[in-house]
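pinging the channel bc i need a second pair of eyes. not urgent but kinda urgent?? the chain im working w is below, pasted from the shared doc
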Amino acid sequence: MRAPESAGARVKALGVVLIEQPVPRGEDDTLRGYTGALKLAADESVADRAALRAVRGLYDVVNIKLDKTAA
């Protein structure tokens, strides 16, 4: 992930601190080893608890949309 990592340093200088769902759902494992300047947030990749376990260690945060929950 060299290109996103170098781009991350440039956009961090602009005040960006997080990238939401940087890869398509199901391709999360490509983030393994990411060491970029920006935090990564899971979104589409986490629809339930099982999916949360599957992406553990790949993302820094999970975006939870309350309007899409059953509660």
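so The longest strand covers residues 39-42. and The chain has a mean pLDDT of 87. — does that match what u expected or am i reading it wrong
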